[in-house]
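Have a close read of this protein, sequence plus C-alpha coordinates, and explain what the C-alpha coordinates say about the fold. Thanks in advance:
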Amino acid sequence: MALFVLTVLSLCLPVWSAVKVVQPYKVVSSNGTALVQCFLHPQFFHHQSPLPNNDLSYPFPEPEDLRVTLLRGLHGSTKICSSILNLTGPIETGEEGEVQCSAQRREGALELTVSGLRATDTDLYRCDIEIFYPPPYLRFTGNGTLIHILGSADCPAPGAQRQISNKEDEGEEDEDEETAAPVSVLVIVLVILVLFVLIIIMYLQASQCDRGRREIIRPVHTVDAAACKNLA
Protein backbone atom coordinates (compact mmCIF):
# COMPACT_ATOMS: atom_id res chain seq x y z
CA MET A 1 0.00 0.00 0.00
CA ALA A 2 2.78 2.42 0.89
CA LEU A 3 4.55 1.56 -2.34
CA PHE A 4 1.34 2.30 -4.29
CA VAL A 5 0.97 5.73 -2.62
CA LEU A 6 4.59 6.62 -3.35
CA THR A 7 4.12 5.57 -6.96
CA VAL A 8 1.01 7.73 -7.36
CA LEU A 9 2.76 10.72 -5.76
CA SER A 10 5.79 10.25 -7.96
CA LEU A 11 3.51 10.40 -11.00
CA CYS A 12 1.45 13.34 -9.81
CA LEU A 13 4.18 15.63 -8.50
CA PRO A 14 5.87 16.23 -11.87
CA VAL A 15 2.47 17.15 -13.36
CA TRP A 16 1.67 19.47 -10.43
CA SER A 17 5.09 21.15 -10.50
CA ALA A 18 4.88 21.64 -14.27
CA VAL A 19 2.21 24.35 -13.78
CA LYS A 20 3.42 27.68 -12.46
CA VAL A 21 2.40 31.32 -12.39
CA VAL A 22 4.82 33.77 -13.97
CA GLN A 23 4.60 37.50 -13.21
CA PRO A 24 6.44 40.56 -14.54
CA TYR A 25 9.34 41.80 -12.44
CA LYS A 26 8.14 45.38 -11.86
CA VAL A 27 5.07 47.55 -12.38
CA VAL A 28 5.05 51.33 -11.87
CA SER A 29 1.88 53.22 -10.94
CA SER A 30 1.49 57.00 -10.83
CA ASN A 31 -2.23 57.27 -10.05
CA GLY A 32 -2.77 54.58 -7.39
CA THR A 33 -3.85 51.94 -9.93
CA ALA A 34 -1.56 49.09 -11.00
CA LEU A 35 -1.98 46.46 -13.70
CA VAL A 36 -0.50 43.06 -12.79
CA GLN A 37 -0.42 40.21 -15.30
CA CYS A 38 -0.43 36.64 -13.98
CA PHE A 39 0.65 34.17 -16.68
CA LEU A 40 -0.35 30.57 -16.00
CA HIS A 41 2.24 28.36 -17.68
CA PRO A 42 1.46 26.21 -19.55
CA GLN A 43 -1.49 28.31 -20.70
CA PHE A 44 -4.70 26.42 -20.05
CA PHE A 45 -6.43 27.44 -23.31
CA HIS A 46 -3.80 25.47 -25.30
CA HIS A 47 -4.54 22.14 -23.70
CA GLN A 48 -6.88 20.97 -26.50
CA SER A 49 -4.35 21.48 -29.30
CA PRO A 50 -0.77 20.21 -29.55
CA LEU A 51 1.95 22.75 -28.93
CA PRO A 52 5.05 23.16 -31.12
CA ASN A 53 8.59 22.36 -29.99
CA ASN A 54 7.30 19.63 -27.65
CA ASP A 55 6.04 22.24 -25.14
CA LEU A 56 4.03 21.02 -22.20
CA SER A 57 0.28 21.36 -22.37
CA TYR A 58 -2.00 22.29 -19.50
CA PRO A 59 -2.55 18.97 -17.68
CA PHE A 60 -5.98 19.76 -16.20
CA PRO A 61 -9.44 20.61 -17.57
CA GLU A 62 -9.82 24.18 -18.71
CA PRO A 63 -10.90 26.22 -15.68
CA GLU A 64 -14.24 27.97 -15.56
CA ASP A 65 -14.60 29.39 -12.05
CA LEU A 66 -11.53 30.74 -10.34
CA ARG A 67 -10.39 33.37 -7.87
CA VAL A 68 -7.32 35.59 -8.14
CA THR A 69 -5.97 36.94 -4.85
CA LEU A 70 -3.14 39.43 -4.39
CA LEU A 71 -0.75 38.50 -1.58
CA ARG A 72 1.69 41.02 -0.13
CA GLY A 73 5.29 40.03 0.52
CA LEU A 74 7.61 37.40 -0.87
CA HIS A 75 6.58 34.69 1.59
CA GLY A 76 3.69 36.35 3.41
CA SER A 77 0.03 35.36 3.29
CA THR A 78 -1.48 38.82 3.81
CA LYS A 79 -4.39 39.18 1.40
CA ILE A 80 -4.73 42.65 -0.11
CA CYS A 81 -7.71 42.01 -2.37
CA SER A 82 -9.27 39.28 -4.50
CA SER A 83 -11.54 38.88 -7.50
CA ILE A 84 -13.71 35.92 -8.59
CA LEU A 85 -13.81 35.32 -12.32
CA ASN A 86 -16.07 33.10 -14.45
CA LEU A 87 -14.35 32.39 -17.76
CA THR A 88 -17.52 31.08 -19.42
CA GLY A 89 -19.66 34.16 -18.72
CA PRO A 90 -19.60 37.81 -17.76
CA ILE A 91 -19.55 37.07 -14.02
CA GLU A 92 -16.79 38.93 -12.22
CA THR A 93 -16.96 40.03 -8.61
CA GLY A 94 -14.48 41.70 -6.31
CA GLU A 95 -14.35 42.20 -2.58
CA GLU A 96 -15.08 45.66 -1.21
CA GLY A 97 -12.24 47.31 0.65
CA GLU A 98 -9.73 50.12 0.66
CA VAL A 99 -7.78 48.35 -2.09
CA GLN A 100 -9.88 46.71 -4.81
CA CYS A 101 -9.06 44.14 -7.46
CA SER A 102 -10.70 43.39 -10.79
CA ALA A 103 -9.60 40.32 -12.79
CA GLN A 104 -10.07 39.57 -16.46
CA ARG A 105 -8.60 37.23 -19.02
CA ARG A 106 -6.53 39.00 -21.67
CA GLU A 107 -3.78 37.94 -24.08
CA GLY A 108 -3.08 34.61 -22.46
CA ALA A 109 -2.89 36.00 -18.93
CA LEU A 110 -5.10 36.72 -15.98
CA GLU A 111 -4.89 40.50 -15.76
CA LEU A 112 -5.46 41.95 -12.31
CA THR A 113 -6.28 45.66 -12.00
CA VAL A 114 -5.50 46.90 -8.49
CA SER A 115 -6.87 50.30 -7.44
CA GLY A 116 -6.73 52.37 -4.26
CA LEU A 117 -2.99 52.00 -3.76
CA ARG A 118 -0.85 54.59 -1.97
CA ALA A 119 2.86 55.34 -1.99
CA THR A 120 3.26 53.44 1.29
CA ASP A 121 1.89 50.30 -0.42
CA THR A 122 5.02 49.88 -2.55
CA ASP A 123 6.03 46.26 -2.05
CA LEU A 124 6.31 42.82 -3.66
CA TYR A 125 2.95 41.23 -4.54
CA ARG A 126 2.15 37.66 -5.63
CA CYS A 127 -0.78 36.33 -7.61
CA ASP A 128 -2.58 33.48 -5.88
CA ILE A 129 -4.85 31.63 -8.32
CA GLU A 130 -7.47 29.18 -7.03
CA ILE A 131 -9.42 27.07 -9.51
CA PHE A 132 -12.79 25.86 -8.12
CA TYR A 133 -14.42 24.32 -11.14
CA PRO A 134 -14.09 21.91 -12.77
CA PRO A 135 -12.47 19.57 -10.26
CA PRO A 136 -9.89 19.08 -8.94
CA TYR A 137 -9.40 22.12 -6.75
CA LEU A 138 -6.10 23.70 -7.74
CA ARG A 139 -4.05 26.52 -6.31
CA PHE A 140 -1.00 28.19 -7.84
CA THR A 141 1.09 31.11 -6.53
CA GLY A 142 3.23 33.42 -8.63
CA ASN A 143 6.83 34.47 -8.22
CA GLY A 144 5.93 38.07 -7.36
CA THR A 145 5.84 41.54 -8.91
CA LEU A 146 7.31 44.69 -7.41
CA ILE A 147 4.55 47.32 -7.52
CA HIS A 148 6.09 50.78 -7.21
CA ILE A 149 3.51 53.47 -6.47
CA LEU A 150 4.76 56.97 -7.20
CA GLY A 151 3.54 59.96 -5.25
CA SER A 152 5.67 60.38 -2.11
CA ALA A 153 7.96 62.93 -3.76
CA ASP A 154 5.60 64.37 -6.38
CA CYS A 155 2.58 64.59 -4.09
CA PRO A 156 3.63 65.40 -0.54
CA ALA A 157 1.43 64.75 2.44
CA PRO A 158 -0.92 67.50 3.67
CA GLY A 159 1.40 68.31 6.57
CA ALA A 160 4.31 68.69 4.20
CA GLN A 161 2.20 70.85 1.92
CA ARG A 162 1.36 73.10 4.89
CA GLN A 163 5.03 73.38 5.79
CA ILE A 164 5.92 74.24 2.20
CA SER A 165 3.17 76.86 2.00
CA ASN A 166 4.26 78.33 5.35
CA LYS A 167 7.85 78.53 4.14
CA GLU A 168 6.70 80.23 0.95
CA ASP A 169 4.67 82.74 2.97
CA GLU A 170 7.63 83.40 5.24
CA GLY A 171 9.85 83.87 2.20
CA GLU A 172 7.41 86.35 0.70
CA GLU A 173 7.24 88.25 4.00
CA ASP A 174 11.05 88.38 4.16
CA GLU A 175 11.18 89.66 0.60
CA ASP A 176 8.59 92.31 1.44
CA GLU A 177 10.59 93.38 4.48
CA GLU A 178 13.80 93.49 2.45
CA THR A 179 12.18 95.63 -0.23
CA ALA A 180 10.48 97.85 2.37
CA ALA A 181 13.74 98.58 4.21
CA PRO A 182 15.51 100.35 1.27
CA VAL A 183 12.33 102.30 0.51
CA SER A 184 12.04 103.58 4.09
CA VAL A 185 15.73 104.60 4.14
CA LEU A 186 15.29 106.47 0.86
CA VAL A 187 12.24 108.32 2.21
CA ILE A 188 14.13 109.35 5.33
CA VAL A 189 17.06 110.65 3.27
CA LEU A 190 14.70 112.65 1.04
CA VAL A 191 12.94 114.17 4.06
CA ILE A 192 16.29 115.19 5.56
CA LEU A 193 17.36 116.77 2.28
CA VAL A 194 14.09 118.69 1.99
CA LEU A 195 14.42 119.96 5.56
CA PHE A 196 18.03 120.96 4.91
CA VAL A 197 17.00 122.87 1.77
CA LEU A 198 14.19 124.59 3.67
CA ILE A 199 16.61 125.63 6.41
CA ILE A 200 19.01 127.06 3.84
CA ILE A 201 16.19 128.96 2.14
CA MET A 202 14.98 130.35 5.47
CA TYR A 203 18.53 131.37 6.36
CA LEU A 204 19.01 133.16 3.03
CA GLN A 205 15.69 134.94 3.40
CA ALA A 206 16.60 136.07 6.92
CA SER A 207 19.97 137.32 5.68
CA GLN A 208 18.32 139.30 2.90
CA CYS A 209 15.87 140.86 5.37
CA ASP A 210 18.75 141.96 7.64
CA ARG A 211 20.58 143.53 4.73
CA GLY A 212 17.43 145.40 3.64
CA ARG A 213 16.91 146.84 7.12
CA ARG A 214 20.49 148.06 7.31
CA GLU A 215 20.25 149.75 3.94
CA ILE A 216 17.06 151.57 5.03
CA ILE A 217 18.50 152.75 8.36
CA ARG A 218 21.74 154.21 6.91
CA PRO A 219 20.14 157.01 4.75
CA VAL A 220 18.00 158.15 7.72
CA HIS A 221 21.09 158.64 9.90
CA THR A 222 22.81 160.58 7.12
CA VAL A 223 19.88 162.97 6.69
CA ASP A 224 19.69 163.65 10.44
CA ALA A 225 23.37 164.48 10.64
CA ALA A 226 23.17 166.97 7.75
CA ALA A 227 20.14 168.70 9.32
CA CYS A 228 21.99 169.11 12.59
CA LYS A 229 24.93 170.89 10.90
CA ASN A 230 22.63 173.33 9.15
CA LEU A 231 20.90 174.24 12.37
CA ALA A 232 24.16 174.87 14.04
Remarks:
- Residues 224 and 230 are 10 Å apart (CA to CA).
- Residues 1-16, 46-54, 154-161 have pLDDT under 50 and may be disordered.
- The chain has two helices and eleven strands.
